[in-house]
Design the sequence.
């Protein structure tokens, strides 16, 4: 599970720990999600691995989602910095996970009611993620798998559910390694394969030919089948 030195998914986070703005109560569904979606932030690959950078990143994403996109809060449920710091994204996501419920976000169009999203700091089209980020990603996904009973087979890149290149070829290319590492981690927790459910994936829409190169943009985040009233920015 995520390490005690960080903003951990396995214990309540302190309100305002990252300096985030207040946000209204989110929409919560009682059914657990079917997919755990791996994103990249499409931000520069910073060499500042500090907690201060991580918290600044979290605030920047929230500001972009609220001010530029017009959303109620950060779109994704969790964020991991290149220094390995794990942060809550959308308000109350962590408490919902602990109850086996799901906070509806805005990160993968038409699947937000059934997908929990993890934003990974950086752009991974040609560079791999840092070791610290990778370790925290494994820990976080393993925790989500155990909490929700989702099979590691349903740990997917954004491009599996949306028309985007996210999470970049390098991160997408190691998702099999991520699934294997998560499988080993949940086995150590005492979770057996029979406790986990697999949900078939829909046909992949494929990456667009000319996806915008813009910080914090990595494909459509909202669609007509999403049960919220936010609008795509």
Sequence:
């Amino acid at each position: 599970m995520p390490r005690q030195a960080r903003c951990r998914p396995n214990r309540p986070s302190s309100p305002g720990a990252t300096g985030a703005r207040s946000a209204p109560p989110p929409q919560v569904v009682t059914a657990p999600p079917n997919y755990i979606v791996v994103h990249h932030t499409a931000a520069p690959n910073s060499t500042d691995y500090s907690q201060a950078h991580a918290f600044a990143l979290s605030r920047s994403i929230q500001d972009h989602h609220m001010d530029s996109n017009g959303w109620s809060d950060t779109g994704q449920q969790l964020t991991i910095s290149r220094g390995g710091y794990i942060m809550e994204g959308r308000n109350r996501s962590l408490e919902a996970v602990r109850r086996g419920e799901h906070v509806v976000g805005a990160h993968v169009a038409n699947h937000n009611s059934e997908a929990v999203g993890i934003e990974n700091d950086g752009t991974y089209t040609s560079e791999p993620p840092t070791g610290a980020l990778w370790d925290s990603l494994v820990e976080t996904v393993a925790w989500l798998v155990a909490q929700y009973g989702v099979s590691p087979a349903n740990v997917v890149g954004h491009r599996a559910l949306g028309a985007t290149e996210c999470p970049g070829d390098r991160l997408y290319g190691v998702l099999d390694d991520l699934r294997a590492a998560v499988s080993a981690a949940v086995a150590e927790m005492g979770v057996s394969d029979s406790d986990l459910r697999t949900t078939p994936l829909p046909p992949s829409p494929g990456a667009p030919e000319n996806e915008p190169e813009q910080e914090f943009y990595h494909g459509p985040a909202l669609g007509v089948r999403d049960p919220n009233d936010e609008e795509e920015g």
Notes: Strands lie at 28-29, 35-40, 78-80, 86-88, 102-103, 115-120, 155-157. The radius of gyration is 16 Å.
